[in-house]
Specification:
The complex is a heterodimer of chains A (331) and B (372). Chain A is built from 14 helices and two strands; from the N terminus they run ααααββαααααααααα. Chain A is an all-alpha fold and 331 residues long. Chain A has a two-stranded antiparallel ribbon. The longest helix of chain A has 36 residues. Chain B has 372 residues and is an all-alpha fold. The interface between A and B is large, with 54 and 53 residues.
């Protein structure tokens, strides 16, 4: 079977597994939301039986139905894009999230993109002057900076640049008092608000530089590079077609992992910078015990990561022809 | 038991060889010399037993040498290892001895928001409710270390288990285990842990560590699996399988030792990630807590507005430095372990250490001499 179809099937399976997981968590975990409805909310209502209706309204699960019907209802509602109703916002979950997603994607994709571009450039230069002052200094810097959690750095940046120097806004995602739309003020305002979150992710991404440095040094010592020099190829050709290509390709996997962890990191960053993206809503939902929004945010974040990884995997075959299927005997 | 069995077999074979006789060889004592054209009694390397029995003491000595002395004598020359291990030892001492030296604190222990180095009864100052920050930081070390230990260990056990079995077995087992691994790789770690901790509300630090490991093991499992895939075709694995060694002991005795270096390096890295995630969760105020820890301190400082109040900034800085410190220690240790297990570094070490002894075959020359 074509590996692309298998990979696609794997992604679909993952999404199904995550949805089932949220169903199981919602229904069976100790302290689960359905019990919360029945035990906590129910007695406060005039008619305690109303709690069942509320559970169905908010979570798409009617606790009175048999289990398989509950599961079926939950999944079909999900397929139709109905994630339930947020209790704290009093809005359908999917509407809340639809507003939030672009902001998270905006900030995080810039952070990952800038982090990797700068990492590749710096790593290449470090490898070129391996052992020199620039290399030693930057290796030390990258080691220390990767040791500092990004949220600690975010707090430091927030303190210095937003509260002390007033260069950047202390929170929020868009300028106040400006008409949203494609006008200059609004767009620069958005960029201005996104700068600190992007920067605090970017500064801690020294890992990319270190990986690039290691890869380049390995490639620089290889035999085919010596042959390329003997053939009299020009330095730019060697640098771009031989060294850069072979050093960057293995980092593609790192990029995929970065996509996954950036959504995790977004949760903390958005909370610190009061940036109303997916992560911020997730935490708000947790604080307010708004289970439908919490589960919805979790599911959507996961699906975003699954799609990102799928795209990365499918394109990787195009970029690196060596990647392919595998056939093995079973023991 | 095994030895005696082998000897019996040996004797039996000798007599057998003589009976079927008519041979040129007549001396029954010198069995080693028997050489027959039909190959019947050729001394097989598989049946030879050691002439000197290895005592338990020998074995312990060898293990110590392999796992402690050799790594240590390489690490001794590496400043990263020295610094990293010292930092971690300091944290361990704070967590074990420090709690006996410094009194626990409580609200209204001192005045509110005493600055650091102002009042020597509170060397690092106090927070808004007058709790001593030094004491809080010291007492936080214990739960953090417990979390780190439990989480890192659980990550390693789960990741190695899944990776080993699915990589070695292949087929259906691999498909099932890899699918589970892939699902967990795809789920973003922090959100998963947030959802789980909201529902489970873990309070004991070790339990928090285990929960955090749920989000961290999958990457390791995939890496271990791909390493096992390269090992499973090796001759020594095939030999063991041909000898009908049970899968469990094959994995444990033949394959696992080859992965040990990789696992140890990952143990250190996992420990760091667990701390990052744990502090993040406490900072977000999601995990329930009874005792203060660095994350809780960060959270309460942030909530009290320490980011814009100059008189409260130390309240935020102290836990930040504590987290970054232990993390730098772990990063340095991880980097130097990476080098220790790197065969090149090892070979270089053995050459310089024994001098006369067995020279490593590969690794030509020059650069090492200059570096030693």
């Amino acid at each position: 079977m074509d590996w692309r179809i298998r990979r696609l099937g794997q992604s679909v399976f993952t999404v199904w597994a995550v949805m089932t997981l949220t169903f199981v968590l919602t229904r069976f975990m100790p302290g689960n939301p359905i019990d919360y409805f029945l035990v906590e909310v129910g007695p406060d209502l005039d008619d305690p039986a109303q709690a069942y209706e509320m559970a169905e309204l908010y979570m798409n699960i009617n606790p009175e139905d048999p289990l398989y019907i509950e599961y079926y209802d939950y999944m079909t509602a999900f397929m139709q894009g109905d994630l339930g109703r947020s209790m704290s916002m009093n809005m359908p979950v999917e509407e809340v999230l639809a507003i939030a997603i672009p902001w998270t994607l905006f900030v995080m994709s810039w952070a990952v993109f800038l982090g990797f571009t700068a990492g590749i450039a710096i790593g290449a230069v470090m490898a070129y002057w391996e052992g020199g002052k620039f290399d030693t200094a930057l290796t030390g810097y990258a080691t220390i900076i990767t040791s500092i959690p990004f949220y600690v750095l975010a707090l430091v940046l927030l303190t210095i640049f937003a509260y002390r120097l007033n260069w950047f806004p202390t929170g929020g995602r868009q300028p106040e008092g400006v008409e949203p739309g494609f006008n200059f003020l609004y767009l620069t305002g958005i960029v201005h608000h996104a700068m600190l979150p992007v920067f605090s992710m970017f500064v801690t991404s020294g890992m990319a530089a270190l990986t690039m440095r290691g890869n380049s040094i390995r490639v620089l010592g290889s035999d085919y590079l010596r042959v390329a020099r003997l053939r009299g190829l020009s330095d730019p050709t060697i640098a771009i077609h031989y060294v850069a290509r072979n050093a960057i390709l293995p980092m593609y996997t790192g990029l995929m992992i970065a996509i996954g962890s950036m959504f995790g990191g977004a949760v903390v960053l958005e909370e610190i910078f009061v940036y109303r993206g997916m992560g911020w809503y997730l935490i708000e939902a947790v604080r307010a015990r708004d289970y439908p929004l919490m589960m919805g945010a979790f599911t959507v974040i996961t699906i975003a990561v699954v799609i990102a990884l799928l795209i990365a995997d499918l394109t990787y075959g195009k970029i690196d022809p060596r990647a392919g299927g595998e056939n093995r005997e079973a023991f | 038991m095994k030895r005696s069995e082998d000897t019996n077999q040996f004797d039996g074979r000798t007599s057998d060889g003589l009976d079927s006789g008519g041979d040129l060889e007549t001396k029954p004592d010198s069995v080693e010399d028997i050489l027959r054209s039909d190959g019947g009694t050729v001394d097989s390397p598989f049946e030879r037993t050691a002439t000197v029995e290895e005592t338990r003491r020998d074995r312990i000595d060898r293990k110590l040498k392999d796992y402690l002395w050799t790594p240590w004598s390489i690490m001794r020359n590496d400043w990263r290892a020295i610094v990293g291990v010292s930092i971690l030892v300091v944290y361990l001492l704070i967590g074990t001895v420090g709690v006996y030296l410094i009194d626990p604190t409580h609200p209204t222990h001192g005045e509110s928001l005493v600055g650091p180095f102002e009042d020597w009864s509170h060397p690092l100052g106090t927070d808004q409710s007058g709790q001593d920050i030094l004491s809080m930081t010291v007492y936080s070390t214990v739960p953090i270390l417990q979390m780190m230990g439990a989480g890192a260990l659980f990550t390693i056990v789960l990741g190695t288990g899944f990776g080993l079995v699915s990589g070695y077995k292949g087929g259906m087992v691999d498909t099932v285990l890899s699918s589970i691994t892939d699902v967990f790789i795809n789920i973003p770690g922090l959100p998963l842990v947030i959802v789980l901790s909201v529902l489970l509300e873990p309070e004991h630090p070790a339990l928090v560590g285990v929960l955090l490991a749920a989000a961290a093991w999958a990457g390791l499992a995939r890496a271990i699996r791909s390493q096992v895939l390269t090992l499973r075709g090796e001759a020594f694995v095939e030999a063991s399988r041909a000898m009908d060694v049970p899968t469990i002991s094959l994995l444990r005795k033949e394959i696992l030792p080859h992965l040990m270096p990789y696992i140890v390096v990952n143990l250190v890295n996992a420990a760091r990630r667990i701390i990052f995630a744990a502090v993040a969760l406490y900072f977000l105020g999601i995990l329930p807590y009874s005792d203060a820890n660095w994350g809780v301190m960060l959270e309460s400082a942030y909530r009290a507005g320490a980011v814009y109040r100059p008189d409260a900034i130390h309240w935020l800085l102290v836990p930040m430095i504590a987290i970054s410190g232990i993390s730098i220690g772990l990063v340095l240790l991880g980097q130097s372990l990476d080098r220790v297990f790197n065969p090149r570094a090892r070979a270089r070490h053995e050459r310089s250490d024994d001098g006369k002894g067995s020279e490593p075959e590969s690794e030509p020359n020059t650069t090492n001499v200059t570096q030693m």
